[in-house]
Amino acid sequence: MSTKNIYSPTYRKKYFEGYSKGFNPFLANESSKKGEAFNSGFTSGRMDYESMNGAINEGIPLRIVTKKILEDFLLAGMIGLKIDSDNYNLFQISVIREWYLCGVEMYNPKESMYLFNILEENGIQIF
User: Fold this and answer.
1) What confidence tens digit (pLDDT) does each residue in 23-45 have?
2) Higher-confidence residue: 79 or 31?
3) Is 17 exposed, middle or buried (0-12, 13-18, 19+ CB in 10 A)?
4) Band of the pLDDT at 120, cuts 50, 70, 90?
5) What pTM was computed for the model?
């Protein structure tokens, strides 16, 4: 692959299409049909999926962890919220735990109280 391809809108589009298919554990790669950009994206998506959810050949979990979900756990740790770890497998819980603990390290009770006050003023209650 040349560096020029990375900057091509067509390449990027096919790469992201491959990435989204690779992140879906129910889909297999059709590498011979899609081309270099799709295959590269598929491989990257599959690697990201497995780094957050475990190897596909060990089974597909009930709940799928994404970067957005991990960011939510990080935020929960930062503001001192309890987390719900129901229906996650042990691999996922170990990944979630790392993100949550990173948030806990940044926890500042004064900032959390300020945030809770703002949310309460707007009718949002956090339990």
Assistant:
1) 999 998 876 678 999 999 999 99
2) 79
3) middle
4) confident
5) 0.78
Report the pLDDT value the prediction gives residue 25, as an integer from 0 to 100. Answer: 96
Statement: residue 106 has pLDDT above 90 = no
Separation CA 14–CA 46 (nearest Å): 15
The answer to whether the beta carbons of residues 98 and 71 sit under 8 Å apart is no
Q: Long-range contacts for 95-99 (Cβ within 8 Å, ≥24 apart)?
A: 95/51, 95/52, 95/65, 95/70, 96/65, 96/69, 96/70, 99/70, 99/71, 99/73, 99/74
Residue whose token pair is 């001192």 = 80
Give the span between the Cα atoms of 68 and 6, in whole angstroms.
Answer: 25
Rounded CA separation 6/97 (Å) = 34
Residue whose token pair is 């959390």: 112
Other Cβ atoms less than 10 A from the Cβ of 48: the count is 15
| Residue-range domain boundaries for the chain | 3-58, 67-121
